[in-house]
Specification:
Structural class: alpha+beta
Strand order of the largest sheet: 2-1-3-4-5-8-10-9
Oligomer: single chain
Number of helices: 8
Distance between the termini: 22 Å
Largest sheet: 8 strands, mixed
Number of strands: 10
């Protein structure tokens, strides 16, 4: 993309050097999701055949993430509610994602630490600075080998194209670890205003060079299948909170 992205390209998609929007739906105090709904939402980030052997962590806004289900595959799934890159304690960020074993030890640890620090009262600007300092002094590292973060959920809410504002969207994709890699390195030319250009692999820099991913969007057929298979979850999320309705256009 013309500017490196920072949250997910999506939010998955995008932040980079851009300033996040200050408009919001809601406030700053996180509320816990019903455990069953949060579990289903977290697992929806993973292809259905892989869900049986994964670990799931649920968020307690007062303390941080707690283990709800222990798995054997090394994959861990959560719903991310704090995006440290945004330096904004919004309460309407919902990013279901799953990391493989290598990502669980590195990238997911950062997300969990951010949630814990937020619960302890660390403000958003200080939290962003703290995470950056922990990367700078090598407390945080990058995966020791290639790997993937699964983000094929039918719904997510975070900053995204075409304007880097917070949207509720259906944008299933995979994120392959690519610390330090740039779009120039792979000849990618993503453009936020041209969604078709995002269907080709591109690099999403989520806050810093260490957290860079090669993004591969799923195609229209796969997306339609996911929305069909997860129709009940999509409806339940909309009932739970209006900002999670896919037809919701405010941001």
């Amino acid at each position: 993309m013309t500017k490196p992205a920072s949250l997910l390209i999506i939010a998955a998609v995008f932040l980079g050097g851009a300033s996040p929007t200050s408009s919001r739906e809601g406030g700053t105090d996180l509320q816990p999701m019903p455990a069953d709904l949060e579990t289903r939402f977290a697992l929806s980030a993973l292809p259905a055949p892989l869900r049986g052997a994964v670990s799931v962590f649920l968020l307690d806004p007062e303390t941080g993430y707690r283990l709800s289900r222990s798995g054997t595959s090394g994959v861990t799934c959560i719903v991310q509610r704090t995006a440290w890159e945004l330096a904004d304690d919004r309460d309407d960020i919902y990013i279901p994602l799953c990391y493989d074993a290598a990502g669980t030890k590195t990238y997911l640890k950062v997300i969990m630490d951010a949630a814990r620090m937020r619960a302890q009262g660390v403000g958003p600007v200080a939290l962003k600075a703290k995470v950056e300092s922990l990367y700078a002094d090598k407390t945080y590292g990058v995966p020791a080998k290639p790997g993937v973060s699964y983000m094929v959920a039918p719904v997510m809410r975070t900053i995204g194209p075409p304007d880097l504002k917070v949207h509720t969207m259906a944008m299933p994709h995979l994120m392959f670890y690519a610390p330090g890699v740039t779009n120039a390195d792979i000849g990618a030319m993503p453009k936020l205003a041209d969604f078709a250009s995002l269907m080709n692999p591109f690099i999403d820099r989520q806050g810093n060079v260490e957290q860079s991913y090669m993004i591969q969007m799923l195609g229209a057929t796969e997306k339609a299948r996911i929305l069909r298979d997860e129709k009940r979850l999509v409806a339940d999320l909309c009932v739970y909170r209006q900002v999670l309705c896919l037809e919701h256009s405010e941001h």
